[in-house]
């Protein structure tokens, strides 16, 4: 994420490249879900636990979306009602930063869930989320620069926000350490729903803001195939 912010303040990528990165990240995460998490969940044959965990995951992500949309609206309305003196530093977009922080915290929890399922699943998910966070770092730094923040301050803010990933991963690995049976099934199903929501409602939705081209669509399937093959040989 810090690398993405550094790239953005040095030379921001064009919209087509950013859309390609989002497509690729979506394909990677979808591959991890289909190849690694889903078979482990189906293998245990616990439909009630799966339904509970999956429902909680969908509810959590819908609640997160509602919260972030509300914060973004508040942040967008704030400049219109406040006059900032020229000598004062540009105000921080707290709504955006809180929304991103919550999103990263969820990513950290999902990372903990992945390692709870196994080292292989956790490693693949870590790589997939790294690609997603690269794109998120790019987008956040560009937004901060557009808001009048300096290059150094933009990177520093992104770096501070990225610490939420470590917090989420720490919580995930601590709480989930030693979890087995039905508890693990609920947790994995929660992560399954959250990751599917992330792919379909966040990454691909944002990626489709640019006009689709065959190469952009291909990026999704390249990401999926790459981690499908990696999962087979790892």
Automatic annotation (TrEMBL):
<keyword id="KW-0812">Transmembrane</keyword>
<feature type="transmembrane region" description="Helical">
    <location>
        <begin position="183"/>
        <end position="200"/>
    </location>
</feature>
<keyword id="KW-1133">Transmembrane helix</keyword>
<feature type="transmembrane region" description="Helical">
    <location>
        <begin position="94"/>
        <end position="117"/>
    </location>
</feature>
<protein>
    <submittedName>
        <fullName>Transporter</fullName>
    </submittedName>
</protein>
<feature type="transmembrane region" description="Helical">
    <location>
        <begin position="50"/>
        <end position="67"/>
    </location>
</feature>
<feature type="transmembrane region" description="Helical">
    <location>
        <begin position="20"/>
        <end position="38"/>
    </location>
</feature>
<feature type="transmembrane region" description="Helical">
    <location>
        <begin position="215"/>
        <end position="233"/>
    </location>
</feature>
<feature type="transmembrane region" description="Helical">
    <location>
        <begin position="124"/>
        <end position="142"/>
    </location>
</feature>
<feature type="transmembrane region" description="Helical">
    <location>
        <begin position="154"/>
        <end position="176"/>
    </location>
</feature>
<keyword id="KW-0472">Membrane</keyword>
């Amino acid at each position: 994420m810090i690398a993405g912010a550094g790239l953005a303040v040095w030379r921001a990528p064009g919209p087509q490249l950013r859309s390609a990165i989002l497509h690729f990240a979506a394909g990677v995460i979808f591959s991890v879900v289909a190849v690694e998490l889903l078979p482990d969940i189906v293998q245990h044959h616990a439909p009630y636990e799966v339904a509970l965990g999956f429902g909680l995951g969908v509810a959590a992500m819908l609640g997160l979306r509602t919260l972030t949309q509300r914060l973004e609206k508040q942040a967008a309305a704030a400049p219109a009602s406040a006059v900032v003196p020229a000598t004062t530093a540009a105000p921080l977009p707290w709504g955006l930063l809180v929304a991103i922080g919550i999103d990263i915290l969820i990513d950290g929890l999902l990372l903990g869930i992945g390692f709870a399922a196994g080292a292989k699943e956790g490693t693949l998910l870590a790589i997939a989320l790294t690609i997603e966070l690269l794109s998120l770092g790019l987008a956040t730094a560009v937004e901060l620069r557009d808001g009048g923040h300096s290059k150094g301050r933009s990177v520093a803010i992104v770096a501070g926000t990225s610490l939420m990933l470590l917090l989420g991963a720490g919580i995930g690995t601590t709480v989930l350490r030693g979890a087995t049976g039905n508890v693990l099934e609920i947790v994995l199903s929660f992560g399954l729903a959250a990751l599917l929501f992330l792919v379909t409602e966040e990454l691909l939705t944002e990626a489709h803001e640019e006009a689709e081209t065959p190469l952009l669509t291909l990026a999704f399937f390249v990401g999926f195939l790459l981690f499908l093959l990696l999962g087979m040989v790892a």
